[in-house]
Every structure is written in C-alpha cells, then in structure tokens.
Design a protein that fits this description.
The structure holds two protein chains of two kinds.
Chain A: E1 2-6, H1 10-23, E2 30-35, E3 46-50, H2 59-64, H3 66-80, E4 87-92, H4 97-105, E5 110-113, H5 124-129, E6 135-138, E7 150-152
Parallel strand pairs in A: 1-2, 1-4, 2-3, 4-5, 5-6, 6-7
Chain B: H1 3-9, E1 14-18, H2 25-33, E2 40-44, E3 56-58, H3 64-68, E4 73-77, H4 80-88, E5 93-96, H5 105-115, E6 120-121, H6 126-136, H7 153-157
Parallel strand pairs in B: 1-2, 1-4, 2-3, 4-5, 5-6
Classes of the chains: A alpha/beta, B alpha/beta.
C-alpha cells in the first residue's frame, strides 16, 4: 500500500495528481493522510485525517496547538499501521514531518516532493525533511542548488 | 467574442474572483466597493465573513475547471493549486498574492508568474483594475504556460520493497 501525506489546498491538489500517476503505473491501494476537513476526498482508497498543524494567521496559535497535534498524529499513525504501508510520499506541508520520521525509523521508503510554489528556497517542511527522507524531489529547477541530494522531477 | 469587442457591443464582462480555501475578506470588500459596480462578478469567498453586496457569492465551487470557462477574466489569489489549474486551462488571469497570510509562499509564485509573463500580477488591490483594463484593451500578450510533466514516478515506485 502506498501512503500519501498531504495537507489542504495546493498540497492536496498535488497529491491527487500524484495518485493519477501512481494508478497509471501500478495496481496498488493508495491511502491519503490529510488535514481535517478534507476527509471526503473520493480519489483515494481510504482517507485518514489529523487537525491542521499550522494556523495560517497566527504563529502563537500554531505553537500552542503542537501537543494535541502530536497526540492526534501518533494515534492516527497507529490506525494506519494495519494497512501494511510499503511506501510513503508527501507533498507537504508540516503535517508530514512527524509521520515521515516515524516511517523512516521503521525503514519504510520515504519520498518528499517539495511544493510547486517554491522557486528559490525550500519550504520550512522541506528544510526539515531533507534530512529525513530517502528521496527528495523538487519541482522547480531553481531549487536544485539548495540541497545536494535534491533531484529535479518536473511538475505535478 | 474578443474582450474588446464585448466593450464595443456593450456586453457585460464576467469576472470570477477566487481565493481557494483560505478566507480573504479585505480583497472581497475592496472588489465589492470598486469593480463590483462596473462588472458582473462572481465571488468565491471560502469561509470568509464578508459577503459582497454586488454580484453573486458562493463559498466553494464544485467542478471548478469547467465553471471557470464561463468567465472572461479570473482574479485569483496566488495559491499554486488554483493558479496552475487556471494556467493549464489557458484562462486570462489577474493574480494577486495574499500577503495577509503568515507564510509568504504566494509572493514567490506571483513573482514567477510576473517574471515569465504568464498572467497579469497585481501586488496591491489598487493595481487590479489597471490590470483588467489592460487585458480588456488587448494590451496584454501573455506567454503560454508550458509545463514539464513530472517524470520521476517510476523512480519513486521502484523504492517499494
């Protein structure tokens, strides 16, 4: 089973496009881990959700939401464990950090695709996950120099 | 019918304002009080609190891509999902980055769009009308969006144990 981790908005749109590419290459169950409010996405075989990590208007609210976020994420990852995850891909954003660390520690292959809206510097999530994932892909060529192991992959 | 022909014929332009999933009341309020008096506007207001008095408002739009084809010009926040979808469908766009958000991702994309001349970019509300006037007069010749398709899917799937 392939697990895709993606937040809302453009991150989720990238995940949908990724799912189309996966489906045209292999016959595999593809599960989505996303933010609350996106749970009705019918493109995926199953959808799990956790509360959004970042408050788009306040860093303080983001900070105070962290403990709950960790608790909810770990609980959800334990639910997903029954699905036999063999590959994890994320299109960001920050909700992917804890799961990617979790799966890397369990030696399950992890791939991060930096968001298509970054052209000259990595996102905060990218800057953290570049040290975690097995394969780090960028969608804009200007990002290739930001990390030695970054691989340009075209745009979703 | 070309946009300038519509003006000549006195046909109303249809403009869509779309902001994705994050509210942007200031933009809606500004357009309602300015452009809303001149054009037929459809506002996609997400979970915002401000509901414009002019035109038509909806919070979210299903079948977004086919819906967009009904509009002459689309004013859009610089959210990448929305912008790339609209560029891929060759829509005429005025892109405005939402700098009220704490992250500044939208500025990077807006700069890219501006640099590559893929659409009009307004960096403040006051520039929006000028950009629309340019488009209607036929003074804007945008480049076609050429996308290099994602080509690493096989490499990713090869990692499956």
């Amino acid at each position: 089973m392939v697990l895709i981790i993606a937040g809302s908005g453009g991150h989720l749109e990238q995940a949908r496009r990724l799912k189309v590419l996966i489906d045209s290459n292999i016959n595999a169950k593809v599960i989505l881990l996303t933010e609350d409010g996106q749970s009705n996405d019918a493109n995926f075989d199953k959808v799990f959700s956790i509360p959004e990590l970042r408050n788009k208007h306040s860093w303080i609210k983001t900070f105070f939401g962290l403990p709950n976020f960790f608790k909810n994420t770990l609980r959800t990852l334990m639910l997903i464990d029954s699905e036999n995850v063999r590959l994890v891909i994320s299109t960001g954003p920050g909700i992917a950090i804890l799961p990617m660390i979790y799966y890397r520690l369990r030696s399950i292959p992890t791939v991060y695709i930096e968001t298509w809206s970054k052209f000259s510097s990595l996102s905060l999530t990218g800057r953290i996950l570049k040290y975690v994932v097995k394969l780090f892909i960028v969608q804009n060529k200007g990002l290739c120099g930001t990390f030695r192991k970054a691989v340009y992959g075209g745009r979703l | 019918m070309a946009l300038f022909e519509k003006q000549y014929m006195g046909v109303d332009y249809k403009i869509l304002v779309t902001i994705g999933t994050t509210s942007w009341d200031d933009l809606m309020r500004y357009i309602d009080k300015t452009l809303g008096k001149k054009y037929k506007i459809f506002y996609q207001i997400a979970d915002g609190n401000y509901v414009p008095n002019t035109g038509t408002s909806e919070r979210f739009i299903s079948n977004f891509q086919s819906f967009c084809g009904e509009f002459d010009i689309i004013i859009t926040h610089a959210g990448a999902g929305t912008v790339y979808n609209l560029l891929e469908s060759n829509s005429l766009l005025v892109v405005i980055p939402n700098v009220d958000r704490i992250d500044k991702h939208q500025l990077e994309l807006a700069d890219f769009i501006d640099r590559e001349n893929l659409a009009a970019v307004a960096y403040c509300f006051e520039e929006i009308e000028e950009k629309i006037d340019d488009i209607i007069r036929g003074g804007s010749n945008f480049e076609s969006y050429k996308k290099e398709e994602f080509f690493l899917i096989e490499d990713i799937l090869a990692l499956i144990q």
